Amino acid sequence: MLKSFKATVLRFLEKGGFVRSSHLALSFMFAIFPFCLFALSLAGVLSPQAKVDDLVNFAIGAWPDAISGPIESELRAVLQAGSSTVTVGALLAIIFASNGVDAIRLVITDAYRETDPRPFWKTRGLSILFVIAGSSLFVIAGGVSLIVPLALHYFDEFVPWLNQSILSNEDFRQLVTISISLFFLYACHKWLPGVKHKTGDLWPGILLCVILWWAASKAFAFYISSFSTYSVTYAGLAGIMSALVYLYLMSAIFVLGAEFNGQLMDERRRAQ
Question: Pfam families, alphabetically (predicted)?
Answer without folding.
Answer: Virul_fac_BrkB (PF03631)
